[in-house]
Amino acid sequence: MKLIDGKALSETIKSEIAEEVKKLKDRDKKIPHLAAVLVGNDPASQSYVRSKVKSCEMVGFESTLINKDDSITQEELMEIISDLNNDEDIDGFIVQLPLPKHIDATAVTLAIDPKKDVDGFHPVNFGRMAQGLPCYLPATPFGIVQMLDRYNIPTEGKHTVVVGRSNIVGKPMSILMGMKSKVGNSTVTLAHSRTKDLAAETLRADIIIAAIGIPNFITADMVKEGVVIIDVGINRVDDESRKRGYRLVGDVDFEPVSKKASFITPVPGGVGPMTVTSLLMNTLMSSKKEVYG
Predict the structure, then answer these.
(1) 58 lies in which domain range?
(2) Residues 238 and 145 placed together within one structural domain of the fold
(3) Known catalytic residues?
(4) pTM above 0.70, yes or no
(5) Each residue of 121-138: pLDDT tens digit?
(6) How distant, in Å, are the alpha carbons of 98, 208, 231, 272, 287 from that of 1?
């Protein structure tokens, strides 16, 4: 079994990005600028956004954090998005999810200019991805593609089972793994909570991408020897032995499954760090006009 170290890989890619930024500075070119909009005081969202801002500092990006109280109206948030769309200095921005219940998250996503949609959530970017056109890939799937690529894990001709059908991870991963590309060319099954005899599907899989949001859902009896496991889940489970009273686990029962896997991502330290790094990669591409010109 070989561990896919997302934390180490993210640091490597950040170093590569920092080197590109240094070259831009040396040539007096524009420095990439990422903005983040955070609404409310959700601890997980705050932690994630802080990680993004810190990562921007590490690679030499400029960053802007717009923090608003959860009492903000839909109209006020839309005005902020409009301002960011029209700010020529901002290369890309994200509106951190989840949003308060009175905010229409779909309307917010649609309001973001696809050219600045470095989270890759806008339907225009999703559609371009599905057709193999230049686009900003959703950050988590982009990170997974990078992991498979840089660890030289073969995907061509393999059977990939994606467990979970969210618009953020499951659906885009199922498309990407079937694309005619270096990381792709696999036969894809998109499974979910309504799939009958899910274990029969996962037992046939050469690659399993677990993104269903249920702790330790994929167990050792559901996978075959030599399987590649990409665990997207980040779930809190109670653990009184820990200082915080909980620990983080993935959607895969790591210890027993790892004994059968050829490659596996840990939780934490696997897919998570790559998500933030992918956001930086998209922002750099936006700054260099590599997607939309």
Answers:
(1) 28-112
(2) yes
(3) 52, 96, 119
(4) yes
(5) 999 999 999 999 999 999
(6) 36, 15, 15, 20, 39
